[in-house]
Amino acid sequence: MNDKLNLHAALAAATCALLGTPVAAPAADDASQRWSFDTSLLYYGESDDRVQDISAALSAQRDFDDDRKLSLNLTADTLTGASASGAISLDRAQTFTSPSGKATYSTPAGKVPLDDTFLDTRIALSGSWTQPLARLYTVSGGLGFSNEYDYTHLGANASLARDFNKRNTTLSFGVAYSQDDIKPVGGAPIPLSQMLDVGDLRNKRGDDSKDVLDLLLGFTQVLGRNTIVRVNYSYSDSSGYLNDPYKLLSVVDPVTGDTVTRVAAGGQGPDGVYRYENRPDSRTKQGIYAEMKHAFGARVWQLSYRFMTDDWGIDSNTLETRLRWPLGAANFIEPQLRYYTQSAADFYRSSLIAGQPLPEYASADFRLGEFDAVTLGIKFGHRTATGNEWSTRLEYYQQSGDVPGNQIVGRQAAREQYPDLSALIVQFGYRFGL
Amino acid sequence: MHGPGAMSLTREPDHWVGRFVAMACPCEVLIDSPTEALARVVVDCVSQCAWRIEHKFSRYRQDNIVHRINTSNGRPIHVDDETARLLDFAATLTAVSEGRFDITSGILRKAWIFDGGTHVPAQADIDALLACVGWHKVLWDRQALQLQLQPGMQIDFGGIGKEYAVDTAATLANSTAPGLSCVVNFGGDIAVVNERRDRQPWKIGIESPDRAGTPTHIVPLLRGALATSGDSRRFVLHAGRRYSHILDARTGWPVEHAPRAISVAADTCTQAGTLTTLAMLSGAQAETFLKASGAKYWLQ
Amino acid sequence: MKILLAAAALLVVTGCSSLGVQPWERDVLARPEMSLDANALDAAIDDHIYFSKEASSGGRGFGGGGCGCN
Q1: Does the beta-carbon distance from B96 to A29 stay under 8 Å?
Q2: Does the predicted interface ipTM exceed a cut of 0.95?
Q3: Which of A201, A326, B102, B256 is deepest in the core (most CB within 10 A)?
C-alpha cells in the first residue's frame, strides 16, 4: 500500500468530498474513557434514641478501552447513640462501669441497659480493577481499607471469571482475605471476667486482631431473553478475636432471676455482677445465595434467597424481592420487601446463673439470638433530561426476637427480655457521568 | 416516495428502535428521543434515505443510473452530482489500494460464487473476465460529468454504497432533528449521530462472524462510526484453502490469509468501511495496515 | 463438599449449554437495570446495615465486614 500518512490524508479528503461535509470533529476515540459516579446520602435511625447513623458514599467508575474498568469507593459515616449491652433489665436502676474504665453510667429501672456508643466516625476506602484476560476470562483485583477509632480493616480480594456457551454462562471464583485490628476503648476485657470498679484495669488486655478468609464460587446463567439467574456458594473462615468487647452478660440469682448485687468501692463501679462475653476464636460460615432477575416488558422483578449456616450453630434464611415499575419514560418506583430469620448461636444465653460453673463460651448479644426481621422499602427514581438519575429510598426495618423459655429465670418472665428493634432508613442517591 | 418495505417502531426503556429492511439487510435506527412522534420522524427520514440510495445505486434494478451505465455498451453516460462523487471516491480507493479495489471488478462474481462451496473457477475464465476489469480502462470526465465504459464492463457500488448510505442517513437525521442522538445501523455498518442526553456512550455489539459460542465484543461509542467486513458465509473452500469473498481486482483471485472479520471505528462510516476493505485487501498484512492507520480496530 | 460443588457446577454448565440467547437477543439483558450488579451502591449500603444488625452476612459477594460493628 501507499505511504500511510498520504493514505490517511487522501481518504479523509475523499470522504469529505463524497459526503459533501467538512470532516467531522474527531470521533470520541476515547468514548469509553469517562467517569461515572454514584453518590448517596443515608440516614439510619433506630427508635428510642438508639443508634443513629449518617453516612455519605461516593462510588466512581472509569471505563477504559477493551472492557477494562477501575472502580473506587469512599464512604464516611458518623455514628451516635446507644445499643443494647446484653445485660438484662431489672425493676431497679443499674450502674455500670463504662468501657474506658474511667466512669460509670446508669440504666433506669425497667429499661433494657444500653451502652452509650461513642461518637464514632468511620472512613472506608476501596478500589478495584477489572479486565478481560484472553478472550473468555475476566480477572479483577481489589484492595480495601477502613478505619474507625477502635478498629482498622485491611483487605484484598481477587477473582477470575470464565464465560461459556456464547457468554450465556459464567463461572467465577473469588478469594478475599482481610486482617482487622481491634483496639477497644480501655483495652479488650478478659473473656468472661467480671466488670470491675472505675480505675481497676486488671481485667483489661491490650489490642487484638482477627483474620477472615472468604471464598466465593459463582455461577451465572442467562435463561432466556428476559431472565438471568445467579447462584453463589460462599465459604468464610474467621479466626482471632471475634468477641464484641463491649457486650456483657448479667449474672443472676438462680431463684429470683435478678442480677446479683455487689457493692462498689466508694460507689464508683457496678452495683451488680456482670461478665464480659466470650465467643469461640474461630467461625466457619457457608452459604448459598440464589438470585433471579426477570423483565416483564419494561418492569423488572428481582427475587433472591440466601441460606447460611455456621459452626456457631446459627442458620439463617433470607428472602428478598423487588419490583422496578417504570412510571412514564423518566420515572420509576420500586417496592422492596425482605424477610430474614436466624436461629441462635449455641452459646447464646440471656444471662449467667450465679453458682453454676462458667460455660466455655457465652454471649447475650441479641444479634446472636433467635429473631426475625422484616424490611419494607420503596424507592423512587427519576432520570433527568441530561440522563443523570436521582433517587430516594425509604425503608423500615423491624427485628423481633425471643429469649428461649428455658433461659428465663424467676421474675425475668414479667419483663421485656428481648427488646424489639425498629429503624428508619432514608437514602438519597444521585448518579451522574462526566 | 420510495416505500418498498415496512417500518416498525418499538420502545425500549431508554430509547426507541425503528426497524426496516433495505439493501438486502436488516436496518435499524436507535433514537434517544423523549417522544414517539420525534422518533417516528427520524426513522421515517432514515428509512426513506436508505430506500432512495438502494433504489438509485442497486445493480439489481433496471431503472437506475447503475443500470444505464452497465448497459451503455461503450457509449458515454451523463451522471448526476451524487453519482459523480461516488465515482470520484471509488477512483481514490483504487489509487490508494494500487488497483486491488476496483468498482469494475464486480463481473468477477460471474466466475466466483462465494457460498461456502468448493468451486474454484478455471484461470482461463478469470482471465477472460479480467479483460473487462480496471478503472484505468474507463474514461471519466469529471468536468462534463460523463462516464464511458468499454463494452462489456460494469460498475458496482457494492463495496462503498452501504457505508455511504449510513453517513448520508446520519447527516439527514441530524438536520431533521438537530442535536438528537441516534444510531444508524444498516446491517452492521453503523454511525452514531450526536451524544446522548445522558452523555453515556451507545453500546455497539460486534458479532462474531461465524463460530457459534464466540462472544460479542461491546464497543462503547459516543459519536463516530463503526464498519465491519467479514466472510462468515461468503467464502470458497478449495484444496484445504479458504478463499475470502474479497477479490483482488488485479489478479481476479480472492485475498488469502485475511482475517475472518475486521471492525474499524472512525469518524464516518465511509472512512471506517474503507479501512476495513483496504485491510482485508492487505491479506496477511491486515493487522499491520490497521496498526499503521491509527484507527481503532477489532479482528476476529 | 467443595469437590462435590465443583462437580455440580460442571454438570450445570454442561446441562445449560442449550439454555441462553444469541448475541442479538441480548437487548433486554443489556438494559442497565437487568444487570446483576445494578444498584451496587444500594446493595453495599444494605449489606453494611445488615452486617451490623444480623449474624449472617455476605453471600451475594464477599462477606462485607471491615467494620467493628459486629
Answers
A1: no
A2: no
A3: B102
